[in-house]
Design goal:
about 425 residues; alpha/beta; Aspartate Aminotransferase, domain 1; Aspartate Aminotransferase, domain 2; 7-stranded mixed sheet; 3-stranded antiparallel sheet; about 10% strand; binds pyridoxal-5'-phosphate
């Protein structure tokens, strides 16, 4: 009898969390490491939100609560989504979850039979590919091209839709690219979905970065397009907009009460309910008029950092970096650096079992942590299927400007350290 069920071989992960152990090892070896790996605002949760949670705890709001979420939060969310998306949302179609991550797993469990096809962006949030593979779906990556600002056309999506397509995942503004879909993009994507897919297809619209937009651009949701509300699972949450990553608060708006009941039952089966004092604080975030100003200050900071990071990265020989329109990441192409440093040659000479576990951008990522003291994420951490020849890094700009400056200086230095890179490979440690 084997210890682990066979299915456990098929689950992926989110390396942004796992890279913490590499940082700890590098630090224990005496290296100072700048962290540009994690996607969370470096600001604390606004005080008035924390105060609401404290007051609730002290008042004894510490018990189980309704599994779909407390009514005041579902009502506040329904009002906000109805107003901002121009649709009417019934609070009973909303299910609150601990963070915006669980609805990904729930959607795969709820809608997918083995062999059904799931289209998702690549590069994209890694949990899409992880759950697609784990659920027995056929993963169908929609490759976003640097040359198109990491956007995609309705045509490109249309070519991937088949009679077996069951779930189409979109994410705007996007992690890791910062790409943003315009209202015209959304309309043409909705049109192709309506034309080419079955009525039971579902669109998973991940909108967790909905408030983090630059250059005056606006957020557009596919739920607002004709014929889409009946098919869309709209997901968002508090983590990114209100600097509430540790509170674990997110939600899904389902196309029907029937589907919301299925998600609620998954909540019951897994954790019963999202903590009530977190939810009370979540109501405060959505309803207190102070929130708008605080969010806009954070976004201004993210935009200033992007304005610094993109030209600074483009000034490094061997790097091209597109200008993100939202979220808090930059996603430079490092193919030129890999060429100059001989990363491709070294990668090609690795033993097959090592090569399988790493990639050129992973090798450079690890070289950066262990030899130059800067933590980033590699391309394959955002979807590995079909991404073998893509060489990018993700840097989080949810980090103070000074650290971003130092981090990019270190990447520049590493990009010229051919000798150091050869030594790193020869040593053979931390290659993946
Ligand atoms: C695109 C995307 N979706 C979902 C999540 C999960 O958010 P949460 O921390 O609220 O679970 C993240 C977090 O990084 C994300 O980037």
């Amino acid at each position: 009898m084997v210890l682990f069920a066979d299915r456990m071989a098929n689950i992926g992960s989110e390396n942004a969390f796992k890279v913490g152990s590499d940082i700890a090892i590098a630090q224990s070896q005496g290296r100072d490491v700048i962290r540009l790996n994690l996607g969370e605002p470096d600001f604390d949760t606004p005080e008035f939100i924390c105060k609401t949670a404290c007051d609730n705890l002290m008042a004894g709001n510490t018990h189980y609560c309704p599994p779909a979420g407390i009514i005041p939060l579902r009502e506040a969310l329904a009002n906000q989504i109805s107003e901002t998306r121009g649709v009417t949302i019934d609070p009973e179609t909303i299910v609150v979850t601990p963070g915006a991550k669980p609805p990904i797993c729930y959607s795969l469990l709820t809608y997918i039979n083995p062999g059904d096809e799931v289209i998702y962006p690549s590069p994209g949030f890694p949990i899409y590919e992880s759950w697609a593979t784990f659920s027995g779906a056929k993963p169908v990556p929609l490759h976003l091209k640097e040359s198109k600002g990491f956007s995609f056309s309705a045509d490109e999506l249309g070519q991937l839709i088949t009679p077996k397509t069951k779930l189409i995942i979109i994410n705007s503004p996007s992690n890791p690219t910062g790409g943003v879909l315009s209202s015209d993009d959304i309309l043409s994507i909705a049109k192709v979905i309506n034309e080419k897919s079955n009525e039971n297809v579902r669109i998973y619209s991940d909108e967790v970065y909905e408030n983090i937009l630059f250059d005056g651009s606006e957020h557009h949701s596919i739920i607002s397009a004709p014929g889409m509300q009946e098919k869309t699972i709209l997901v968002s949450g508090h983590s990114k907009s209100y600097a509430m990553t540790g509170w674990r608060l997110g939600f899904a708006v389902l196309p029907s009460k029937l589907e919301a009941n299925v998600f609620t039952n998954l909540n019951i089966n897994i954790f019963s309910c999202t903590p009530p004092f977190s939810q009370a604080a979540g109501v405060e975030a959505y309803t207190n008029p102070q929130s708008a100003e605080i969010v806009s200050k954070m976004v201004k900071n993210f935009e200033e950092r992007r304005n610094y990071a993109v030209p600074a990265l483009n000034a490094i020989e061997g790097v091209t970096c597109a200008n993100p329109k939202g979220a808090f990441y930059v996603f430079p192409n490092i193919g030129g650096i890999c060429d100059t440093l001989g990363v491709f040659n070294h990668y090609n000479s690795l033993p097959a079992d090592v090569a399988r576990k790493t990639s050129p951008s992973k090798l450079f990522q690890m070289f950066l942590i262990y030899h130059h003291g800067v933590a980033t994420m590699d391309r394959q951490s955002f979807g590995a299927i079909g991404a073998k020849d893509m060489h990018f890094l993700r840097l989080s700009t949810a980090t103070d400007l000074n650290s971003i400056k130092k981090g990019i200086e270190r990447i520049d230095r590493a990009s010229k350290d051919k000798k150091g890179f050869s030594e790193f490979i020869l040593k053979g440690e931390h290659l993946y």
